Amino acid sequence: MNGLDVVPVALGARSYEVRIGRGLIGRAGAEIAPLLRRKRVAIVTDETVAAHHLAALEAALAAEGIACTSLALPPGEATKGWPQFARCVEWLLEQKVERRDVVVAFGGGVIGDLVGFAASVLRRGVRFVQIPTTLLAQVDSSVGGKTGINTAQGKNLVGAFHQPSLVLADIDALDTLAPRDFLAGYGEVVKYGLLGDADFFDWLEVNGPALAADPARRQRAVRRSVEMKAEIVARDETEEGDRALLNLGHTFCHALEKATGYSDRLLHGEGVAIGCALAFELSQRLGLCSQEAPSRVRAHLRAMGMKVDLADIPGDLPDAAGLLALMGQDKKVVDGRLRFILARGIGAAFVADDVPGEAVTAVLTEALHRR
Ligand code: GLY
Fold first, then answer.
1. Does ligand 1 lie within 6 Å of residue 140's CB atom?
2. Nearest ligand 1 atom to alpha carbon 229
3. Mutation test of ligand 1: which of 110, 113, 136, 141 has the most ligand atoms closer than 8 Å to its C-beta?
4. Which superfamily does CATH assign the domain made up of 179-369 to?
5. For residue 337, how far is its CA from the centre of ligand 1 (angstroms)?
6. Which residues are catalytic?
7. What sign results for the dihedral spanned by CA atoms 48, 52, 53, 56?
8. Ligand 1 neighbourhood includes 144 CB (under 6 angstroms)
9. Which long-range contacts (CB under 8 A, 24 or more apart) does 211-218 make?
10. pLDDT in tens, 186-212
11. Contacts (Cβ under 8 Å, ≥6 apart) of 197
12. 3-state SS assignment for residue 201
């Protein structure tokens, strides 16, 4: 197929490919068929994605003689919990999905995480294919095998590492995304440049504003993001070390998401972008990078029309001590010390396990004063 990018995720017996290109949903039957032991799949999606794309996926499967059955869950983060998880698992059992069958997760991060987790426990583990339809899912959540759901105690606290057998990222599916959702996904794209590829960040500074309207540039941005994620996941599948780099901006982000009640006051990718800007400010305050680095991060996010600072979050926020306390509840706290991903410059992030609380408080206090 013309213009198809294939990024391998090298994990021994659990290796798979991420295929990235235009029109992939319309070719999904041919892409998935080689994985099947019988010509039948179960698709789990959400109602929004179903309205836009399910008929195209069903037609693509039918064209290869693959029968399918589908379940559309309600859209939104609230779906990613026990009730819809139980519904999904029971539905898959009712559909008589067998150990050697393939389940298709068709949607954004919520669907990918929930359905991946369902596949990991169904009959002690069945294979699944990710067809991510949001930018955030294409560049992050569909790759690397983290699956799970939220509980009353917090986000993603129940789950499993369960790698997909194939990921199909159809660049054209992003055409139907709301601009705000596209930009939120872009927060994760910028993250890759900031954490490990200064040339990619340079490229994004020039090309980022044109991504939404230009599928070729969009594909290049998705491919580079996925290449970086695949390389990190292959080195450290279960986050014993380097995989934590993917959490650049996330310690700040998780505190802000908690403070805003996981509402549409702040989408996850928006929190990541603000968190990346704050992580660079913290790095500069600790003398690790020059003032130019956080200034460039902020300038680029502004040029994209994104949220950049605490001032861009509507409504009240806790004070610096309150935000710091919310960070302390983050699951990545190791032995009571705060873990941050800091940077020695753009493209040069590293894991720091013993960041002084006073420096974090100072960065947050300044940011709150800008509100
Ligand atoms: N989203 C971070 C990771 O996959 O490790």
1. yes
2. 4
3. 141
4. Dehydroquinate synthase-like - alpha domain (1.20.1090.10)
5. 21
6. 124, 146, 188, 229, 239, 243, 247, 250, 254, 268
7. positive
8. yes
9. 211/186, 212/179, 212/182, 215/22, 215/171, 215/172, 216/3, 218/171, 218/174
10. 999 999 999 999 999 999 999 999 999
11. 224, 228, 347
12. helix
Residue 145: CB within 6 Å of ligand 1?
no
CB 20 within 8 A of CB 31: no
Burial label for 221, CB within 10 Å (0-12, 13-18, 19+), is buried
* Ligand 1 atom 2, closest CA: 246
| Domain range annotation of the chain | 5-176, 179-369
Domain 5-176 has CATH 3.30.420.40: no
CB-based contact 297:346 (threshold 8 Å): yes
pTM of the model: 0.96
| pLDDT tens readout for residues 223-240 | 999 999 999 999 999 999
Phi then psi for residue 15, to 5 deg, are -65, 155
